[in-house]
């Protein structure tokens, strides 16, 4: 996969914001694949320009676990979920899902994915920290937090849908 610098990503977003280009035409104009352009546009809509940065990111085990469970619970495509969580590309999330399916939660919560022996040594410590985190909260607190977070996600989804609807209506008005 080709790596693109921040300037080409910004140029793509500028073309898309001009309302004169579709994802396909903007991608063709800049010589990038449509899937790549589509991913950038989706990420931009969720997170703004900061998501276009190409620096590698380090994700916590809890974040990985939450993302994988969210994908599975909501039957999302990998591409859509990657955009929601600000994960550049789909390969990373695919690896997390495979690791979760192969090793369970402990596979994602372990610190090191490169050295299996080192990972085994740290597994007990990481699980203990995670269990302590969960045990410090009562079941009712966890249920309330989960309910609150689901409500926030629903609110954000509706907000995005409303904004997209307004954007689509503005685009339709300009074409008339």
Tell me about the largest β-sheet. Answer: none
How many structural domains are formed by the residues? 3
Strand content: under 5%
Specify Rg, calculated over alpha carbons: 20 Å
Low-pLDDT residue spans: 113-125
Structural class: mainly alpha
Mean pLDDT: 78
**Span between N and C termini?**
39 Å
Query: Care to count the β-strands?
Result: 0
What proportion of the residues is helical, as a percent range? over 70%
Shape: globular
The ordered string of helix (H) and strand (E) elements is HHHHHHHHH
Family: Belongs to the IS150/IS1296 orfA family.
Domain Insertion element IS150 protein InsJ-like helix-turn-helix: 63-112
GO molecular function: sequence-specific DNA binding
Protein name: Helix-turn-helix domain-containing protein
Quick synopsis:
The chain is mainly alpha-helical and 176 residues long.
Explain this structure to me?
The protein is mostly helical. It has three domains: 6-55, no CATH class; 57-135, no CATH class; 137-176. Helix content is 74%, strand content 0%. Helix 1 packs across helix 3 and helix 3 runs parallel beside helix 5 (78-85). The longest helix is centred in the last third of the chain and has 37 residues, at 139-175. The radius of gyration is 20 Å and the shape is globular. The relative contact order is 0.07.
């Amino acid at each position: 996969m080709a790596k693109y610098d921040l300037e080409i990503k910004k140029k793509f977003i500028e073309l898309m914001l001009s309302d004169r280009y579709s994802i396909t035409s903007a991608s063709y104009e800049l010589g990038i694949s449509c899937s790549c352009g589509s991913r950038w546009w989706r990420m931009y809509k969720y997170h703004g320009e900061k998501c276009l940065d190409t620096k590698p990111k380090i994700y916590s085990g809890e974040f990985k676990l939450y993302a994988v469970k969210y994908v599975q619970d909501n039957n999302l495509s990998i591409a859509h979920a990657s955009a929601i969580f600000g994960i550049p590309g789909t390969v990373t999330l695919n690896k997390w899902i495979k690791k979760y399916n192969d090793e369970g939660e402990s596979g994602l919560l372990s610190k090191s994915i490169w050295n299996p022996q080192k990972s085994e040594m740290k597994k007990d410590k990481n699980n203990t920290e995670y269990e302590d985190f969960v045990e410090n909260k009562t079941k009712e607190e966890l249920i309330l937090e989960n309910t609150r977070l689901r409500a926030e996600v629903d609110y954000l989804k509706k907000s995005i849908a409303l904004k997209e609807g307004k954007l689509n209506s503005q685009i339709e008005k300009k074409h008339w």
